[in-house]
Amino acid sequence: MKYSMDRLVNCLKEQHISVTPQRLEILKNIISRYDHPSADSIYQEVRRHLPMISFNTVYKTLETFCQLGLITKINPLHEVARYDGNVAPHAHLVCTRCHKVEDFDWSWPDDIPLPDASPEGFKIESVSVQFFGLCQQCQQQ
Ligand SMILES: [Zn+2]
Ligand SMILES: [Zn+2]
User: Fold this and answer.
1) Distances (CA, A) of 10 to 15, 18, 38, 70, 83
2) Which residues fall inside 5 Å of ion ligand 1, going by CB?
3) pLDDT of 46-62, one tens digit each?
4) pLDDT digits (tens, 9 = 90+) for 47-106
5) Which of 7, 39, 64, 137 is deepest in the core (most CB within 10 A)?
6) Mean pLDDT of all residues in the chain?
7) How confident is the model at residue 136 (pLDDT cuts 50, 70, 90)?
8) Closest ligand to residue 76's CA
9) Which band of pLDDT confidence, cut at 50, 70 and 90, is reported for residue 109?
10) What ligand is nearest to the CA atom of residue 129?
């Protein structure tokens, strides 16, 4: 489930965050993609439309969007953070060879309930599911 641009722009306004051309361009980019791009990948595409934008701005904007819950961040082990415009609970298929990340429509908490009792001193807030393996292309190589 992805939010529409209208909805996202409204969210920014509600949070009193000004809707700048930079923020709009970054939002448009992440929402239109299904490849779970890294901040750098988003930066490379956004700068084609906004040559003056800096990587730092893109990175900080993505982090702000995450904090607002407009997008999510996934962190395959030992890799840079990747961003996801799909905010519905879903699992990911992570290729260990080419690092491609695909959505896998398998949801919780029905499938994976959060434990009622947390380990001592730890407050469980969410669960993320990543399955590691080889994508179709990498299997054929
Ligand atoms: Zn692969
Ligand atoms: Zn995803």
Assistant:
1) 9, 11, 25, 11, 21
2) 95, 97-98, 100, 135, 138
3) 999 999 999 999 999 99
4) 999 999 999 999 999 999 999 989 988 876 656 889 999 888 888 999 988 888 999 987
5) 39
6) 88
7) very high
8) 2
9) low
10) 2
Pull the structure tokens for residue 21: 């051309």
Tokens at 104, concatenated: 């896998």
- The annotated binding site for Zn(2+) is made up of 95, 98, 135, 138
Q: What is the mean pLDDT of residues 101-124?
A: 74
Q: Give the 3-state secondary structure of the chain.
A: CECCHHHHHHHHHHCCCCCCHHHHHHHHHHHHCCCCCEHHHHHHHHHHHCCCCCHHHHHHHHHHHHHHCCCEEECCCCCCCEEECECCCCEEEEECCCCCEEEECCCCCCCCCCCCCCCCCCCCCCCCCEEEECCHHHHHC
Q: What's the topology of domain 5-74? A: Arc Repressor Mutant, subunit A (1.10.10)
Residue ranges covered by each domain of the chain: 5-74, 89-140
Domain 89-140, classified CATH 3.40.50.300, yes or no: no
Which ligand has an atom closest to residue 100 CA?
A: 1
Report CA(102)–ligand 2 centroid distance (Å): 6
